[in-house]
Design brief:
The chain has 15 helices and ten strands. With 389 residues, it is of the alpha/beta class. The chain folds into two domains: 316 residues, TIM Barrel, CATH 3.20.20.150; 60 residues.
Length: 389
């Protein structure tokens, strides 16, 4: 049934092959859903109304595929894209699944592993560009340690920088119009991962040879695993001009990486995130890096995918209502009221302004005793989300 919460191409909703293709296996149980081919997953996403599909290299082409197998898979995948109208906005490399990467890829202590990781990445970049990807994501799933005795973190940082500089130069040399996005995570599958948060990557990017080519791909569950406010990480990345991609899902704070359906756990967090993205005019994909519950069959996977998109659109409408609600906006105007009394003290530094600020007589007690009405504002927000406003 089509309604105002049905996805359209302009919403730019995307899923990874690994998301809708997740078979429900976990550390304690075998798969509960049969494996679907990459082409079949594209048709599934076309059926639920997605805009695009993303992939790791080995989601599409198995790591041990022969040349003829590779050609057949690509042919079927391209046909599915053509039949459904889906595009490929983003691609990435699996540098964590194969045993060769058990101690990392770009940060491995073994130089042969680091060289192989570069080889695999360059081939995967070629494949992504061939299929239309404009963003390439790096998630360092094994770039970390279980014991700090094993690896020098300074050496690991230098190795990672060298690899990023290398692939940037490779993209330039090939004439690819490609941006790279780095995805942080605090832990899992390693005991500790390097670059645990989006903020860590934002600092690292400025040390690269081509920082203009590199941004971040914040993931909601990854920041929440560390007990952080995801919207704040996204806002920092946006303000820095580095929000190149985003992964949406949900998570019970401080648990393992649950990758639940968007909005399944923290609705208020999801609301403020959607409102932020829509208010600032974020133009990139809204990528759902999540998967259906283990309880579901393939029809349940479709329900999961539709649910991610529908919840985003419902929260988008709620954001518009928040911006138009007269009580909320009146309250915000009162909270942010400025009587102009310190206008002369605002702005960039000057010696005269510093002297004026130092000499100004502030009524500290009057300022401190003013109620800010945040309780009322938050309650109005809750009532809006609960549908009574």
């Amino acid at each position: 049934m089509s309604d105002i919460y049905s996805p359209r191409p302009e919403h730019k909703f995307t899923f990874g092959l690994w998301t809708v293709g997740n078979t429900g296996a976990d550390a304690f149980g075998e798969a509960v859903r049969s494996h679907l081919s990459a082409a079949d997953l594209v048709y599934l996403l076309g059926e639920v109304g997605a805009y695009g599909v993303n992939f790791h290299d080995n989601d599409l082409i198995p790591i041990d595929a022969t040349a003829s197998e590779r050609a057949a898979i690509l042919k079927a995948f391209k046909k599915a894209l053509s039949d459904t109208g889906l595009i490929v906005p983003m691609a990435t490399t699996n540098l964590f699944g194969n045993p060769v990467f058990k101690d990392g890829a770009f940060t491995s202590n073994d130089p042969k592993v680091r060289a192989y990781a570069l080889q695999k990445t360059m081939h995967a970049i070629d494949l992504g560009v061939e299929l239309g990807a404009g963003v390439y994501v790096f998630w360092g799933g094994r770039e970390g340690i279980e014991t700090d005795a094993a690896k020098d973190p300074v050496a690991a940082t230098k190795r990672f920088r060298e690899a990023l500089n290398f692939v940037c130069e490779y993209a330039i040399d090939q004439g690819y119009d490609l941006k790279f996005a780095l995805e942080a995570k605090p832990n899992e599958p390693r005991g500790d991962l390097y670059f645990a948060t989006t903020g860590a990557y934002l600092g690292f990017i400025e040390t690269l040879d081509h920082p203009e080519m590199v941004g971040v791909n914040p993931e909601m569950a990854h920041e929440q695993m560390a007990g952080l406010n995801f919207m704040h990480a996204v806002a920092q990345a946006w303000e820095a001009g580095k929000l190149f991609h985003i992964d949406l899902n949900d998570q019970n704070y401080a648990r393992f990486d649950q990758d639940w359906r968007f909005g399944a756990q923290n609705l208020k967090q999801a609301f403020f995130l959607v409102k932020f993205l829509e208010d600032v005019g974020y133009a990139g994909s809204r990528h759902f890096d999540a998967h259906a519950y283990r309880t579901e069959d393939h029809e349940g996977v479709k329900d999961f995918a539709r649910g991610c998109m529908r919840t985003y659109l419902i929260l988008k409408e709620k954001g518009a209502r928040f911006n138009a609600d007269p009580d909320i906006q009146t309250l915000l105007a009162e909270i942010n009221a400025d009587d102009g009394s310190v206008d002369a003290l605002k702005g960039a530094y000057s010696a005269a302004k510093a002297a004026a600020i130092k000499a100004h007589a502030f009524d500290r007690e009057a300022i401190a005793t003013r109620g800010l009405q945040y309780e009322k504002l938050d309650q109005l927000t809750v009532e809006l989300l609960l549908g009574v406003r």
